[in-house]
Design a protein that fits this description.
It contains three helices and 13 strands; from the N terminus they run E-E-E-E-E-H-E-E-E-E-E-E-H-E-H-E. The protein is an alpha+beta fold. Strand 2 and strand 3 form a beta hairpin. Bound molecules: zinc ion (4 copies). Pfam families: LIM.
Length: 173
Amino acid sequence: MQISQEPSASIGGDGERQECAGCKKKITDRYLLKALEQFWHEDCLKCSCCDCRLGEVGSTLFTKANLLLCRRDYLRLFGSTGYCSACSKMIPAFEMVMRVKGNVYHLECFACQQCNHRFCVGDRFYMCDNKILCEYDYEERMVKCSSSSSSCSSSCPPPFNSIHSAVSSSVLR
Ligand SMILES: [Zn+2]
Ligand SMILES: [Zn+2]
Ligand SMILES: [Zn+2]
Ligand SMILES: [Zn+2]
């Protein structure tokens, strides 16, 4: 949705002023903004979320569910972070997520995929074949790998990850 700016005098003929869709008052400013097929005071066209002015000519505004939103808030509220690597469902952008090496997870999905152990801050976890494993299951697997004659796939990385640094939030404020 693009915003255009027009001299108010040219709209509606001689002296007739447009009503602002925001405050419902007549627009007597020299310029008014046109967006969403309505007219606005420069000060009235603002983001419903962060109150930033959207009246920059040529800037883009977004509408959803009767909200006027700036691009940042729109993406925060209605964009998506990606798809959970555990359950493959979409993760809304406003949700807290776990990020590990380019993968994102719902917080509730971030658990050992072998025994469903949930991790706490400071716990060690391992990524093995793109699966999250707790320390115990990882060692189990390593033992199996080293005792069997077939060699473990080279994608099993030995270094552990600490959950502390991996917790991140996609919530901006
Ligand atoms: Zn107004
Ligand atoms: Zn905003
Ligand atoms: Zn999930
Ligand atoms: Zn486990």
